[in-house]
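Sequence dictates fold. Below is an illustrative record:

_____
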Amino acid sequence: MRQIIACLLLFVFSSCKKEANDHKLKVGTYRATLQLQDNEVLPFIFEVDSPEKLRIFNAEEVIEVDEIEYKNDSVFIKAPVFEGFIAASFDGDNFKGSFIKESLDRVVPFSAEFDNRNRFKVKSDSNRNASGIWETVFSKDIEGDEYVAKGIFKQEGEKVTGTFRTTTGDYRYLEGVMDGNQLKLSTFDGAHAFLFTATVTDSTMEGQFYSGNHWKEPFVAKRNENYELPSANALTFLKEGYDALEFSFPDEDGNVVSLTDERFNDKVVIVQIMGTWCPNCLDESKYYTQYYRANAERGVEIVALAFEYAKTESKAFNSIARLKSKLDIAYLILLAQYGSSDKAKAQEKLPMLNHILSYPTSIFIDKTGKVRKIHTGFNGPATGEKYVEFKTEFEGFIGELLAE
C-alpha cells in the first residue's frame, strides 16, 4: 500500500509538464465526493475564499484550511491538525485524486466539482421526519461489535442535521437530507469521513454506517424521546488495589515526565488520554486549552498522553507539535505510544485502568494524588446541550477539588 500511495503522489504531481502554479483553486463553491464501498458516495461542500484558503462545511461546523500547495497542474490540501490530505490534479475548474492517510495506508478516491452547492442529490420530496431522539444500536447481535448510541436530529424541510452520541463520544456534525423515506448524512473533517444511510418509517430507522472505504456496519434505531446513554463516569475505573495513576512518558524535548514531578505537587491534575488524529480529542483539547489558560493560576494542571498511529517517533512528535501550534495549547502533551492507537496496547501502558474504552478519556486527580473520577469520551459541540452539561459538570467538579 505504501508503494501505491507513493505512485499516486508521483502521478498526481507529475501528471502535467507545465510550469508550477499553472492551475489554482478557483474562488467559489465546490461539491466534493469520496468513493466508498457499495458504490456509495460521501459528499461534502467547501468554499474557496482564495487560492490559499478554503472552508469545509458540516452543518454548523466550519473548518478553515490554509495548508494548500500547488505543483504543476496539481493541488495538495491538508486540513488543520490531522494527518490526512487530498492530492489531486486539475481538470478545468474541477479536480480529481485521492484522500490519503499515509500512516494507516488508506487511500479513498476523491473528486470535486466547481459551482455545485448541493451536498446530496435529492430525487423525491421528503415524506418522513427524522427530528427527535433515536435509541440506536450499531452492529446489533454481532458479538464483540455491538454498541449503543443516541441519535439526535433536527429536520427542516428536506434538510437534516444532528449527530449520534455513543458511550465514548459522538460522530460530530452530520448534515444531509431526507430523500423520500431515505435518510442520508455525511461529515468530513480531514480525519474522518462518515456516511450514514437509512430507510426511515414513522418510528424506526434501519441502515448502514460507512467510515471511509475501509469500514461499514449496520445500525437500527427506534424513536424514544426519553432515551439516555449509560453514565460516562462509570465506564472506566481503577482496578482493585489501586487509587493512583502512574506513568513516565517523554515530552517533545526528550524530558521524561511523571506525576511525581514537582510541577504537579499540591495541584488538581487532569490527565487527558488522547490522539492528535482523533476529532473528539480535538474538540476536547480546544475546550481544555481555554479552561487551562483561564484557571492554571488557581492550581490546575492538565497533561495529555498522546497515543499516535504515526509510524515513527519523529512523525508522532511532529503531529503533537502541529496540534499544539494550531490550538495554542499551553499544557504538556507527552508521547505515550506511536505506531498504533490500539486501545488494548494503550491499556498496557496504563495497567492500573480496567481498560481504555475511548479516545479521549479524562482522569481527575486531587491534590493528594488520588484518582477521584474517570470520564470516558467527550460530548463535543455537535451534541448541543450535552456539551453545555459537560462543561458545567467539569468546572463544578474541578472547583470542588480545588476547594479541598
Residues 15-20 have pLDDT under 50 and may be disordered. Helices lie at 2-13, 279-295, 313-327, 343-349, 385-403. The domain at 132-223 is CATH 2.40.128.120 (Lipocalin).
